[in-house]
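[recover] target loaded
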């Protein structure tokens, strides 16, 4: 279906919604007439209060990963669903680890379900650096504070509360909505989403779409608000280099050692710059930014602009831009002897490489070996999976379009993120997955993610629930 047709469908859906009394008929999927409750069925203030209390409680369950220990959080979320009569189940992928899923039934017999994905585990937080204890869930100055408030417990609460709100309002969507909260995302997801996709696939066998972290409502450099939706992610290629050499006393060193071999290899790797390549979602992203901000003109035709050496040099100085147009190679872990005066027989380095979607991992490894130019250095792959992108047109993007339009006639910009999320496990399984959390974050708030003083505005948590309810109604045809 053409983009314009989707846009027209979205607008038609909005028109149906805005005739507030008559939500009954139609919707995007042409669902049969459903008696919808009046708008006052949603008490947003009350839902926001309830969500605030829930998020505070959720933050107080310490799910720092490692070790994760998400089981308590999974059980708490299950109880919340069960209290409202929504069936929910908890799994234990490994002792103490948890996954929880819940299903809000719709009336669609042949429509594909939507998965709302989030993760329960969080990264570590050093209380000494924080203004409030990071696992307190304290509500202060209109914000809910704590590790996970944004990444990713807040978004999980928005998804959960939206499902409860729809159920309580007696709305029957034209498709099922499946909530899945996993653990272990911050460590790669093998004991979370990876385990779930491998072992409990039947839980989401009827799903066609998925929403996850990775995008949201943000601002351009020129302070124009837009809806950023990630449709693609770079893929990690984590490698370990191991060098060998003679061992001995450092007082009588040989000419070359494992350490000197390794550092020579690393110097070459550090100097290496992968070719610049502007993939379609990245091209479109910069084009959209230029349109919103009225420039810079180079963003209109980024690939062409990057052929000019001066502009290219300037552009690539911004680390995020650099990461969006090329593969990156970043040594992060080093190891060899534990003692200053001992020459160890081995030295190793771990290197975090990130590849653009479409890059051939085997060819990339070949290039890395060529750059190092030393066959005695062993190169092992620690982590890699295929990069699968999601199509930019779908019923789900259509619903996001509709919410954006409703929210101030905002633009939806599909893009690629430099990091990776649990979405890849589900994309590989055929789901159309988008990174989009319907909450607005400032750059300063984004910096608290994996940083200090992570917090989310109470008001924005409520807005998130309201937008998520809208989104599900647009996508669910009621
Ligand atoms: Zn996250």
């Amino acid at each position: 279906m053409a983009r314009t047709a989707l846009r027209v469908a979205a607008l038609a859906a909005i028109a149906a919604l805005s005739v507030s009394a008559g939500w009954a008929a139609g919707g995007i999927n042409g669902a049969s007439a459903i008696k919808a409750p009046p708008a006052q069925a949603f008490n947003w203030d009350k839902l926001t209060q309830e969500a605030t209390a829930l998020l505070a409680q959720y933050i107080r369950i310490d799910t720092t990963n490692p070790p994760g220990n998400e089981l308590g959080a999974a059980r708490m979320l299950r109880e919340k669903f069960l209290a409202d009569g929504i069936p929910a189940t908890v799994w234990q992928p490994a002792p103490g680890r948890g996954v929880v899923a819940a299903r809000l039934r719709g009336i669609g017999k042949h429509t594909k379900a939507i998965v709302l994905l989030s993760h329960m585990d969080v990264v570590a937080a050093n209380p000494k650096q924080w203004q409030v204890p990071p696992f307190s869930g304290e509500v202060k100055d209109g914000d809910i504070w704590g590790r996970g408030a944004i990444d990713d417990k807040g978004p999980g609460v928005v998804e959960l509360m939206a499902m409860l709100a729809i159920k309580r309002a007696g709305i029957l969507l034209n498709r099922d909505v499946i909530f899945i909260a996993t653990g272990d995302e911050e460590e790669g997801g093998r004991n979370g989403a990876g385990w779930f996709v491998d072992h409990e696939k039947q839980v989401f066998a009827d799903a066609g779409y998925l929403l996850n972290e990775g995008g949201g409502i943000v601002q351009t450099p020129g302070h124009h608000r837009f809806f950023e939706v990630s449709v693609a992610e770079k893929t990690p290629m984590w490698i370990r280099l191991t060098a060998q050499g003679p061992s001995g006393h450092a007082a009588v060193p040989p000419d070359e050692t494992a350490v000197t071999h390794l550092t020579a290899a690393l110097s070459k790797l550090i100097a290496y710059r992968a070719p610049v390549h502007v993939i379609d979602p990245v091209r479109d992203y910069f084009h959209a930014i230029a349109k919103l901000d009225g420039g810079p003109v180079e963003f209109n035709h980024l690939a062409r602009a990057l052929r000019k050496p001066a502009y290219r040099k300037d552009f690539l100085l911004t680390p995020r831009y650099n990461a969006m147009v090329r593969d990156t190679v970043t040594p992060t872990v080093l190891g060899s002897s534990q003692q200053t005066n001992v020459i160890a027989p081995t030295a190793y380095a771990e290197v975090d490489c990130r590849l653009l979607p479409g890059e051939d991992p085997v060819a990339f490894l070949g290039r890395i070996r060529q750059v190092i130019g030393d066959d005695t250095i062993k190169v092992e792959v620690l982590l890699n999976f295929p990069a699968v992108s999601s199509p930019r047109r779908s019923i789900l993007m259509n619903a996001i379009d509709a919410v954006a339009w409703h929210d101030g006639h905002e633009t939806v910009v599909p893009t690629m993120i430099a990091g990776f999320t649990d979405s890849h496990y589900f994309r590989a399984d055929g789901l159309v997955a988008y990174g989009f959390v319907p909450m607005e974050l400032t750059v300063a708030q984004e910096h608290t993610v994996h940083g200090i003083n992570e917090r989310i505005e109470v008001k924005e948590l409520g807005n998130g629930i309201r937008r998520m309810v809208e989104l599900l109604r647009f996508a669910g045809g009621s």
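[recover] notes: The mean pLDDT is 91.
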